[in-house]
Structure formats: C-alpha cells, structure tokens
Design a protein that fits this description.
Number of helices: 18
Structural class: alpha/beta
Order of helices and strands: HHHHHEEEHEHEHHEHEEHHEEHEHEHHHH
Helix content: 40-55%
Number of strands: 12
Radius of gyration: 21 Å
Strand order of the largest sheet: 9-8-7-6-10-11-12
C-alpha cells in the first residue's frame, strides 16, 4: 500500500460516515504524489498527516424562537482547518445539508483555494443546518443572533474571519456582525466580510466569485485557442455565484441559455436576460419559473437535469457533486469544450477523471471560484486602512489575481508533466505553498 493510500484509509477510519470529506481528501492527495517524490522533506515532516487533521473543530447548539413563539434548535459548526499562511478565512453556509462532513470538506478545499490567491489567509468553513428559505426577517435575525452568541468566542480579525456562503448573504452578515459588535463592544469591521457598504463592505465583493470564475475560464479558453464570444453557456444554480457568472459571461460575449434553481431550470434560446433573472432571484427572492412570465418564448422545465441541454461551456454553480459520471458523459457527447466550477466540489472524482481524459478543459473550484475569498481579503485590507476602494480598482485587482491563479496552476501542471490539467496544477500549487509554511514552523 502506498503512503498516500494509507493516509486516505486512515482518514476514512478516523472520520467514518463523512463521504464529502473523504472525497475532498482523495481528490487532493491523488494529485500530489509527484510533489512528494521530489520533495521527501514534506513526507519526513508529516505535512500530509497534519493537513488532513483540522486544527480545531467546533460544534454548538443554536436555540432560537420562530414567528409562532416556538423554540427551535439547530446545530452550528466551525472547522478551523489550517492557519499556516494566515488567519482562518472561509464562509458560513446555512442549509439543511450542512453537517460536519460537509464543513470539513469545505474547510479543506478552502485552505488550498486561499493559498492560490497569493494572500495571507488560512482555511476554515462553518455554518448550520438551519434553512433560511421561507423564514421571515425576524426569524433569520433571531437565528443569526443566537448563532453568533456562540461563534464570537472563536473568531476575530486576527484569528478567524468568516464570510457568506450558500444561504448567507448581506442580510445575514448584517445580523451576524451586529450581534458580534454588541457582544464584543468593539467595531472590528475586519472580523466578517461580505458586509454592507455602509459599515465596511467592499464594492465588487458580491460580484467577485462569479466574475472571477469567468476571468479564469476566459483565460483558460484563450490559452487553448478558443474565444468565449458566441459560446453557449449553461449555468446550474441562480444564487450569487450563478447570477454574476451569468452577468460576466454575457459581458464577455457569450450567450447564457439556461439557469436553474432547486425546482427546475429555465431555457431561453435567445439568451437569458440578466436584469430579469437578477430581479427575480436576488431582489424579489422568487422561483426561477417566474422568468417565463417576462419572456413567454422561454421554457421552464421542472424536475429535470439542466445538463441534458447542449452547450459549449458548463458552469456548475449550485451544490457539490452536481456533475457525476453520467452527466460528464452527456456533456462530452453534446460537444461541451469546457467546465468551470463555480460551486465547491461540484464534480465527482470519477467525472473529473473522465473529463480530463477526453481533453475537456476543466477549471477546478479551488482555483476558478477563488475570486470571492480573494475579494474578501481585499475587504479586510480596506477595513485595516479605514478606506474604501472604487469598484474598478477592486475589479482590476481581482482580474490580476485570477490571472495569477491560472498562471500558477498552469505552471505547476506543466512542471509535473500534465499540461492542461488544471485540477492537478491547482492542487499542487496550493499544497506546495501551505506545505512550505508548515515545514518552516516545525512541529506545530
């Protein structure tokens, strides 16, 4: 049995019934074998064994009162996985699917994603199995205040800086930060990111993950002789990442023909109108089926997979494991040339291997969706200087960061004999930076 396979088996034994965490571990560790062969000091320092063991795992009870006056209880999580290159940084996810396995996989991915940005931020993730859908503002405020009443003990602008994620937008961040400020008796704006502009938020933060995804995908396409102009794009999801991926894809000259939510997808052969989909999903918080009320020639399809549609570029921006082996086969047979991961781990390991073997360009999440956390770090920089930057300045820095991530991923893939394999390249580039810092610190 190889060293890495033994490590994977040990993780599974120590962390039973955590399939998402196991999947994330396998995806990374199977990529870094050539790095370990050429850098035996990494094995000697037991970097891999330390990396797969979070520095800290926190679980806590979250009691809150609903609109009828009934007490509800949810579970809260924060996994602080690695702080080798900076304070912990990563989002909070409120969704019924959240459990320890999901949070650990997200924190593991976040560690390498943050390293790829070139900024001094470590990896963490958190959240709750609380479902914000259908809840009133007062109910969400009640939950957020209770959640922060415990979380505040474990975070701070030099310790751990949470942000938003699935189910946690500007509204939730506002309630969370308000409670943090109240308890801590201090205006530490750098303790949370994704804040409103009136109290320390950054312009372009909302757009950053989606914009960054398209900057990476566009760079990847250009370097392989393709143009994004005129390409048909399908996007799963209609949350923050999906919406602003749609906006930037259209601005770059592509045609977004379909988007989805948890009930179904809308298909518009003439191209999705961003302003309409934005109003429906972000402002009015309605179902995507409303789109056909504005564009009757569009089609709403319920309870079917969006990936059956023919497209040039697929952007999974919803949930993990959105693209499995069968879906990957469908994309290939339909002539898809590129997949850009906007969500975290949206493609199964089997599907990744198939796509790469068929020379489909694959922009992996830890590289391609790093624009959000990169801009969160820029928000922290603005908070530290008590200054606000223009949208154009933040966006230009974001473009440079995403180009650098592409270049580093491409360079690593080439160096280890896998040109065009951005999954392997991103894994190696992120891992190497974290590993070098861990070795420098000694046995900690």
């Amino acid at each position: 049995m190889t060293y890495l396979q033994k490590t994977i088996d040990d993780v599974k034994q120590k962390n039973p019934n955590e399939p998402e965490f196991h999947q994330a571990i396998e995806e990374i560790l199977t990529s870094i074998e050539p790095v370990l062969k050429s850098n035996p000091q990494i094995v000697k320092a037991k970097v891999v064994e330390r990396l797969v063991e979070p520095e800290r795992q926190i679980m806590f009870r979250v009691p809150w009162v609903d609109a009828s006056g009934e007490l509800q209880i949810n579970r809260g999580f924060r996994v602080q996985l690695n702080s080798a290159i900076g304070p912990y940084k990563g989002g909070l996810r409120f969704h019924p699917s959240v459990n320890l396995s999901v949070v650990k996989f997200l924190a593991f991915e976040q560690t390498f994603k943050n390293a790829l940005t070139g900024l001094s931020i470590g990896g963490a993730k958190g959240g709750s199995d609380f479902n914000p859908k259908g809840k009133s503002d007062l109910e969400i405020m009640s939950f957020c205040q209770s959640f922060m009443t415990e979380l505040y003990r474990h975070i701070g602008q030099h310790i751990d800086i949470p942000a938003g994620d699935l189910g946690v937008g500007e509204r939730e961040i506002g309630y969370l930060y308000g409670q943090y400020k109240r308890i801590s008796n201090s205006f530490e704006a750098g303790t949370l990111t994704g804040k409103g502009l009136s109290y320390g938020g950054s312009l372009a933060r909302k757009e950053a993950t989606g914009f960054g995804l398209l900057y990476f995908v566009n760079e990847m396409l250009k370097n392989h002789g393709h143009s994004i102009v005129g390409k048909k794009v399908v996007i799963s999801g209609s949350g923050n990442v999906a919406l602003y991926s749609c906006k930037k894809a259209i601005e770059l000259g592509a045609t977004v023909i379909a988007m989805s939510d948890s009930n179904g997808y809308v298909y518009d052969k003439n191209g999705i109108d961003f302003d309409t989909i934005h109003r429906i999903k972000e402002i009015e918080r309605k179902r995507i089926s409303e789109y056909v009320n504005f564009y009757p020639e569009a089609e709403y399809v319920e309870n079917k997979r969006i990936w059956d549609l023919q497209c040039d570029i697929a952007l999974p921006c919803a949930m993990q494991n959105d693209i499995d082996l069968k879906t990957a086969e469908t994309l290939i047979s339909n002539g898809c040339i590129a997949v850009g991961e906007g969500a975290n781990m949206p493609t199964t390991n089997e599907a990744i291997n198939l796509l790469i073997s068929k020379n489909i360009l694959l922009a992996p999440a830890k590289a391609a969706n790093a624009g959000g956390v990169a801009t969160s770090a820029l928000e922290m920089a603005q908070n530290s200087s008590r200054m606000s930057w223009t949208f154009e300045k933040v966006d230009n820095i974001l473009k440079d960061i995403m180009k650098n991530i592409y270049d580093e991923s491409s360079k690593a893939a080439n160096e280890y004999g896998q040109p065009g394999n951005y999954v392997m390249g991103a894994n190696i580039a992120g891992f190497t930076k974290v590993a070098n810092a861990m070795i420098a610190f000694g046995a900690v």
